[in-house]
Amino acid sequence: MKFCSACAAPVILKVPAEDTRERFVCTRCETIHYQNPNMVVGTLPIWNLQGETKVLLCKRAIEPRYGYWTLPAGFMENQETCRQAAQRETIEEAGANIQLHELYSVLSVPHVDQVHLFYRATLIDTNYLAGTESLEVALFAEHEIPWEEIAFPTVSQTLKFFFEDLKNVRSGGHFQLHEHDFYKSHRPD
Amino acid sequence: MKFCSACAAPVILKVPAEDTRERFVCTRCETIHYQNPNMVVGTLPIWNLQGETKVLLCKRAIEPRYGYWTLPAGFMENQETCRQAAQRETIEEAGANIQLHELYSVLSVPHVDQVHLFYRATLIDTNYLAGTESLEVALFAEHEIPWEEIAFPTVSQTLKFFFEDLKNVRSGGHFQLHEHDFYKSHRPD
């Protein structure tokens, strides 16, 4: 940010009165331009096939991480709820008809100023279709997941939480919300 | 937004190529200025006194809703995690030493482009003290809560979830995550 979006004068970084952090402040109209984390919201859609639970992944057709696999997710838009964002991104990226379940993971990624939310979901049918931001969409059982080709640590971690919980659920347990923080040094295993 | 923060030329609202929504786009450098929801993160701090569970509320010293009561909460900052934001806001607004527990409510407020998160917390001591954004900080049992003077519907709702769950917890149940969406027509009861 170099210029004020309200009046076009140059901005400077300074700590405003009664604040504790540097903000971009307009040198003419004194508007303070706050910058805050963005939310990335998506789903973990599953399909049960011949006794096996498969998850739907999308191969990214855009940067960053072009060609890597991800869960359907994207930036939450103004004027929508978290659940609406999750459903919209799943349709846009995977063309998937889902039943949306509960919030499953809340993942802070402070070094990129993001919070990622994933909801559990069940596919209603297998008429999914790669959207413009996906090269390919496919179902993977746990042993089929291309762990080395997962786009983001938050996606790997959510998949790991899921398959771990799934074992407990099969012996009578429940899925539970997972919170996890990711720092810059964190790399997918 | 009237001007481009990168080059100071005027922006116009238009749907960029391969997008479906209107964005502010620079008429000169063509930078797309995305606008996304903000996260408000806080806590529901409790203190058990003579068999009664009390919650810590702050009387707002700032607009909007000056003079109304709220849970300690505020805008999440870049470079921090959700849990760090919750803890920081509780210290800034209420000067309260807390033990932070699990995420308790996730509340979308699409008409103001916000998502509110509240964590359960327990006060470590009662040395709380109103910060610069609070007129007063005090403990309230359920029957003492000034329901008509609560600042925001997300706060009223989180308090209601809590006292309802508390009855279940006392008979062997557990606290659970609550998700709820608020629309413009929603008013506190």
Automatic annotation (TrEMBL), chains A, B:
<protein>
    <submittedName>
        <fullName>NUDIX hydrolase</fullName>
    </submittedName>
</protein>
<dbReference type="Pfam" id="PF14803">
    <property type="entry name" value="Zn_ribbon_Nudix"/>
</dbReference>
<dbReference type="InterPro" id="IPR015797">
    <property type="entry name" value="NUDIX_hydrolase-like_dom_sf"/>
</dbReference>
<keyword id="KW-0378">Hydrolase</keyword>
<feature type="domain" description="Nudix hydrolase">
    <location>
        <begin position="36"/>
        <end position="167"/>
    </location>
</feature>
<dbReference type="Pfam" id="PF00293">
    <property type="entry name" value="NUDIX"/>
</dbReference>
<dbReference type="InterPro" id="IPR000086">
    <property type="entry name" value="NUDIX_hydrolase_dom"/>
</dbReference>
<dbReference type="InterPro" id="IPR020084">
    <property type="entry name" value="NUDIX_hydrolase_CS"/>
</dbReference>
<dbReference type="InterPro" id="IPR029401">
    <property type="entry name" value="Nudix_N"/>
</dbReference>
<dbReference type="GO" id="GO:0016787">
    <property type="term" value="F:hydrolase activity"/>
</dbReference>
